[in-house]
Design a protein that fits this description.
The chain is an alpha+beta fold and 71 residues long. It contains 2 helices and 4 strands, in the order ββααββ. It has helices at 12-17, 22-31; strands spanning 2-6, 9-10, 40-45, 51-55. A hairpin with a 5-residue loop joins β3 and β4. The N and C termini lie far apart (25 Å).
Amino acid sequence: PVVLIRNGIPLKQNLRRNLLTLDELESQLRANGIEEVGNVKKATLEPDGEISVIPFDDGKVGHGGKSRPVT
């Protein structure tokens, strides 16, 4: 598995290595009911190509309390 988001921050190098754009990742987040990248504790690209998303608990936001809207 490859980590794509950690503590609300997209790991752009891992996205590039796996030929994913930030737009594609954001689309997958919306499909999982996540509106803001900053609300994601961890997102992982699984070996089968699926993206697993773990949101922060209780509305907490990563990235120093800042959130980035999914566009």
